[in-house]
Amino acid sequence: MKKRKVEVVVISDVHLGTFGCHAKELLQYLSEIKPKILILNGDIIDIWQFRKSYFPASHLKVIKKIISLSSKGTKVYYLTGNHDEFLRKFTDLHLGNLSLLNKLVLNLDGKKAWIFHGDVFDASINHAKWLAKLGGWGYDLLILINRFLNWILAQMNKEPYSLSKKIKNNVKSAVKFITNFETVCTDLAIENKYDYVICGHIHEPKIEHITTEKGKTIYLNSGDWIENLTALEYYNKKWKLYQHAPSDIVSEEEQFEYENQLAEQFITLLKN
């Protein structure tokens, strides 16, 4: 299969090791491209919710694919996020084409791109970590229920539905948080004269040109591989947002597995 050449690819919020992760789709995407630079912008492995009982072969294959890309010449930057913050004690580590960092500044055709996960601006992470972790468990359960709901909708030939997007779009505090997050990122980027500011964390894919009285920048968010299945791609001096088609239509065997996962996740939530 002929692979699509891309100069830079940015993915974030994969959350390997959780039930909501679309590892199979991500593996398919990574197998279709040939990037010069691959930036893993945080929350790739969900260490917060890691459990020995759940790390499927498809999740492990994603890790192997990333290592394979690195061994074949792709420069891979792993930038730490809040769900994989354990890795921050090992930052500034360089192994061949693989680098582990907290943030990165890239020069792209004479323009500076400031890249980081974004949890540093999240007060709920910095001041109430237990609450953030509880939210992570609840979000994982919500996504799992949503995927099961979409399986039912598919049997009825109806369009899939996103419970989490519905909540985020209708809860004022969620909308305000996202807006504040984007404003803080872009204000700092303009202040430091970065042409691009690239984040993850909030699972909201976006490319937006921002202009204020102090200057301008381009805000980019790579989204996630839980709901949106998105990545940022840079080629021919332009950024674009790539979106992969989800595969929410599952077999009866997978349906049974989802039911077991729902039960297990609910029990885990009660224990925690």
In words, what does this structure look like?
The protein is of the alpha/beta class. Helices cover 39% and strands 26% of the residues. The protein has 7 helices and 12 strands. It has helices spanning 23-32, 57-71, 123-127, 129-155, 163-170, 172-191, 252-271, and strands at residues 4-11, 33-41, 75-79, 93-95, 98-101, 103-108, 111-116, 196-199, 206-212, 215-221, 230-235, 238-243. It has a 7-stranded mixed sheet with strand order 4-5-3-2-1-11-12. A 5-stranded mixed sheet has the order 6-7-8-10-9, covered by helices on one side. A hairpin with a 2-residue loop joins strand 4 (93-95) and strand 5. The longest helix is centred in the middle third of the chain and has 27 residues, at 129-155. It is globular. The termini are far apart. The relative contact order is 0.17. Residues 124-135 have low confidence and may be disordered.
